[in-house]
Inverse folding.
């Protein structure tokens, strides 16, 4: 409703802006970003399909991991999809190379030792939370997360406080959407001192949820 000027130039309003390669709209839904990422990834998959004669998984899956997945996971902790239709849109991108290799999606994920994109996003959220709370960014973690001040918890001594907000939009932020999953992790996973051991134990937990 307001008009702003930079010196003598009138600044136009915009419903979406690109910041560090991420499209952010005025409602913070991230739907346009998901569509953009899926489009880029599908273009690359099309190039792979046209230029690579082999349809074996030994050829296609490494190519997709190196060329396609970076687009699907760049800065994803910020723009993680909020709606099921956006999740399914991104998941179909990962399903395409398996279809090209004549593999069924759900069964082959377990066989190949891969995660769905949704599970990979959760893995990234939990790893970033671990770094903030127990890694090299503990000062930032103390400002971002609210740890329950109690050591009586039998399974998890590092539980986070589930804060409530009036706006539903806030529940999609990393500091809120990861809380429930973090609190469910076994004590043996969270007590892992180095990050690499935490990753290994976390993967074992996530594999059981596939």
């Amino acid at each position: 409703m307001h008009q702003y000027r930079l010196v003598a130039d009138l600044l136009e309003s915009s419903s979406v802006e690109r910041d560090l390669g991420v499209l952010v709209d005025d409602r913070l839904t991230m739907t346009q970003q998901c569509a953009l990422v899926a489009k880029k990834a599908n273009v690359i998959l099309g190039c792979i399909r046209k230029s690579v004669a082999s349809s074996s998984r030994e050829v296609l899956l490494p190519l997709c991991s190196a060329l396609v997945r970076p687009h699907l996971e760049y800065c994803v902790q910020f723009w993680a999809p909020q709606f099921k239709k956006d999740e399914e849109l991104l998941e179909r991108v990962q399903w395409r190379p398996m279809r090209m290799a004549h593999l069924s999606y759900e069964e082959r994920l377990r066989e190949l030792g891969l995660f769905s994109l949704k599970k990979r996003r959760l893995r990234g959220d939990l790893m970033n939370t671990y770094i903030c709370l127990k890694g090299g960014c503990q000062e930032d973690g103390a400002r971002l997360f609210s740890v329950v001040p109690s050591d009586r918890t039998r399974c998890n001594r590092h539980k986070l406080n589930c804060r409530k907000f009036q706006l539903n939009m806030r529940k999609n932020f990393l500091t809120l959407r990861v809380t429930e999953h973090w609190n469910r992790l076994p004590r043996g996973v969270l007590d892992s001192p180095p990050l690499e051991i935490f990753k290994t134990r976390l993967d074992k937990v996530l594999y059981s949820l596939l």
The chain has a mean pLDDT of 83. The chain has two domains: 4-114, 120-207. The two ends are 48 Å apart (CA to CA).
